[in-house]
Design brief:
seven-stranded mixed beta sheet, 8 helices, 18% strand
Length: 236
């Protein structure tokens, strides 16, 4: 089966397909920001695997296929978590992007995309290794439940916005910033941009995520399958 066939048939790519469709319809003369969850990964059996698990062969193939489909009239700057499944995803997407004729400016590891700082390793016992309770974990964290054991949600939120959305908003050139991260950071961004408590439906499948672009005379955000105007206060 070809990579194109896999892209068309794997059900978990539904969110990624919607994301690609949206970014193909924005102003090509304006910068674009994409933040996605890593691709299909190896099974995480325990909490130790959370910082070491890489991609499956399928994950690498469809990541490259995604790169082939990202509009390449903008130069791309990649940012990624240093955890294997994230930088492997970034490498594969960039390979496809370049193969399609795109130009990659740089590929930079970004510590914020790994997750928050913490002082008590046992805090991660509240998050299942496979991440299926990640929205619940983020909501509890945002309410201060893990105070003293992990960086406060508000502090991490500011760092994350500075390193992603605000960096993008300060761009002078027509670039695409592509961020590859984990469930946790992606859900923090979603909670910040939506301004509400997360639900299980907010969790993204592999390669799903959000995009921000200048569209219809304002910054628009594509998130959870919907497009809406971005609050300018989030850029300050």
């Amino acid at each position: 089966m070809t990579s194109e066939d896999l892209w068309d048939t794997e059900d978990w790519l539904s969110s990624a397909k919607k994301l690609i469709h949206w970014i193909c319809d924005v102003d090509e003369d304006k910068p674009l920001m994409i933040l996605v969850r890593h691709s299909h990964r190896e099974t995480l059996r325990n909490h130790e695997d959370m910082l070491s698990g890489g991609l499956t062969p399928l994950g690498k193939v469809v990541s490259k296929e995604m790169g082939l489909r990202i509009p390449n009239h903008r130069k791309a700057h990649f940012f990624f978590s240093i955890v294997p499944r994230c930088y492997e995803t970034a490498e594969a997407i960039s390979e496809g992007f370049i193969q399609a004729g795109g130009d990659v400016i740089d590929m930079d590891p970004l510590p914020t995309l790994v997750g928050p700082e913490y002082t008590d390793n046992t805090v991660w016992m509240n998050l299942n290794p496979n991440g299926d309770n990640v929205t619940e974990f983020v909501n509890r964290w945002a309410l201060g439940e893990f105070e003293g054991r992990i960086e406060s949600f508000s502090e991490f939120q500011e760092r994350l916005m500075d390193d992603t959305l605000r960096r993008f908003a300060s761009l002078k050139d027509n670039q695409v910033h592509i961020h590859v991260t984990h469930d946790l950071a992606l859900m923090c961004v979603k909670r910040t941009l939506s301004g509400r408590v997360l639900t299980e439906e907010d969790r993204e499948p592999y390669l799903g995520g959000i995009a921000v672009a200048f569209k219809n005379a304002s910054y628009q955000i594509f998130m959870t399958g919907k497009s809406e105007e971005l609050k300018t206060s989030l850029l300050e």
